[in-house]
Structure formats: structure tokens, C-alpha cells
User: What shape does this take?
Amino acid sequence: MNKLTLSVIKADVGGFVGHSGVHENLLTSAEEFLREESRDLLIDFKISYVGDDVNLIMTHKMGAVSEKIHSLSWECFKHVTETAKDMKLYGAGQDLLKDTFSGNLKGMGLGVAEMEFIERPSEPVIIFAADKTEPGAWNFPLYKIFADPFNTSGLVIDPSMHRGFNFEVIDLKKDQKIMMSAPEEIYDLLVLIGAPSRYCIKAIYSRETGDIASSSSTQKLNYIAGKYVGKDDPVCIVRCQKGLPAVGEVLEPFSFPHLVNGWMRGSHTGPLMPVPREQSTPTRFDGPPRVTALGFQINEGKLQGPKDLFDDPAFDRAREKANEIADYMRRLGPFEPHRLHLEEMEYTTLPQVKDNLNERFVNII
Ligand code: F6R
Ligand code: MG
Ligand code: MG
Assistant: This one.
């Protein structure tokens, strides 16, 4: 059977106001472009957003890392950038790091999460999108969903999940990857993914069926560029149910607003607040970082949805807790650990400020 591909491709091509949101004209512009240009390529698409990022959610049969789909997305974001420039929106075109497209989107500035699968008799998926944070932000919830039986009871009581999952982990600095198996290797896995600014989970596979269960965007442009070029606000796709974690097990880790890197100037640690899409407006100190969850039931490639899954009072307490943590962290001002630790700050604008002090240092005798 011919596999379906689900591609989620995102970029910040202009903020409204500042870096806090997306103007609706950008969404219309993306919608019009894909409606005109994608006819033979896409089965279906939805335009979405989180904070100041526009997300293209697309289904097709071209496979992951398809030159045609990547090129279409690149052209779409270039088109949307024109609208952003006309409106003098903030940072228009900021994520389009290259002038011309050259085969695929790696290192071009756009975030990409893709997966290929045979559509099941019923295919529920959740697309997470976060603003003001980085790809490693998914490590904690993905571990909980796919490896922690205190989160996911299916790991214990569903025979088709009992064998566990395989994790593909990327070393962002070295551009290398490693496959690890849960539950046998969870201690080794945590050695790596407990350091989310360096190692992040790219994909997860069922050990029972070999099927892909999750796929995340993992680019970290600061490492590629060697300097601060903005945060790589990430997206993540998770398939649910029937041998995979239930929708409720997939959402459960977000009831705890864990600390992530990002927030103001991509240089601070703060809680990841789960919000309905409408509230994904990082206003307080450009944050706190937000995460949204859109649910779809895919039907012959058609994206039925979205259902805004954090638009639910069950997540009110997580939002309150995130506000409490935000109050606490903000009191630290420019001190670590609110400000990122020094090694991470090397990939921000800090070195430029620090360089001015170099000649004033003298040896202690
Ligand atoms: C973080 C982010 C914002 C900006 C901040 C300064 O990912 O996008 O917090 O870093 O608003 O922005 P500039 O340098 O554009 O004034
Ligand atoms: Mg921005
Ligand atoms: Mg953003």
C-alpha cells in the first residue's frame, strides 16, 4: 500500500506585534499560495500558527524530504514574506536564511517534522507546536509518553505496547544520530536526552510493529551558524491509539510545565505553558514559552480537524503553575539559571558584549 506522508513545515517570517504573534494576513497569504500552487502535489493542507510562527500542515504521497514538497514550502514562505514586508511586520523574512532553494530545507532556517506511514483504519494524530523554545523541549514529554509507565499506563497493560519503543536521538552539535531502545536502555537514553540543548529526540518507533510513532523538527541553527540567529521554535507529530499511546497519555506530560530554554532573546529558562492556539501569544517577557496541541483524524489523507486539545480546563492548573514558575524565575533577572548557562550563551549575542572586557582582564599574581 502506498504510504502517506505528513509534513509539518514552519517558519517565522514576520511578527505581529514584535515577536508575539502572527498577523492574519500572513495566514491568508499562505492559504492562497498553497491553494493555487499545490494542486498536483498535496492531498490536503491546513495553515496554522503558534506565537509568531506560521505552520504548514500537509499530507501527500511524495515521501519525507521530498524536493518538491520542500521547494513548495520554501516558495510559500517567500510569498508570505512579501506580505510581511509590505505590512512592515516585525522581522519580515527572518527565518529564510538563504537566498535560493537547493534541494531540501536542511539548514535553510525552516523547521521540518515529517513522517511516512500506512494510514490505519482510524488515524488520530496530534501536532504539537511551540514558540520561544527549542527542539530539545520535546525530550521531557516524549520520554514520559513513550518510556514512563507512570505517565503511560499502556506501556504496562496494553500487550501491543509492552515491548516498548525505539528512540532516534540526534547530537545537534556533531550532526550524528543514535538509536536506543526503551525500556532496556532508559538510563543511557536519559544520559543524553537529559541534556536537551545538545541531544534531542528526532523520531520514535514501535518495537511491536516497527511503525513510526513520533517525529520532531530538530534543526538548531545557532550551532550551524556558530552565532545567534534566533530560536528554532519546534514542531512535533505524534500518532496515537491502538498500540500507540492514547491521546490522553500523549497530552498528560504537559500537565507539568517543565523548564525549557528559550523565552526572551532565546537566552532564558522558563516553564512551557500549554495553551489553546488563540492564547499562544508570548507577551510576558516574550513568553513564557508556549505549546499548542492540535488533534486531527486523518481520513484518506484528508486532515479532519483541528481540535484544539489544550483548550480544556483540565490544563488550567498547568497554566497557573507555569505563571507561578514564571514569577519565580523572573525574580532572578540576569542571573543563571534563569539566564542560560555560559556555554549556551556563547550562541547568543553575549560574546559580542563580553569581548569588550577582554583587554581589561589582568593575571592574578
Ligand atoms: C526569542 C525572540 C524574542 C527576541 C526579542 C528581541 O526567540 O524571538 O524574545 O529575541 O524580542 O528581538 P530583537 O532583537 O528582534 O529586537
Ligand atoms: Mg520572531
Ligand atoms: Mg517564534
Remarks:
- The chain has two domains: 1-118, 122-346.
- Residues 122-346 form one domain.
- The CA atoms of residues 5 and 160 lie 24 Å apart.
- Residues 67-86 form the longest helix (20 residues).
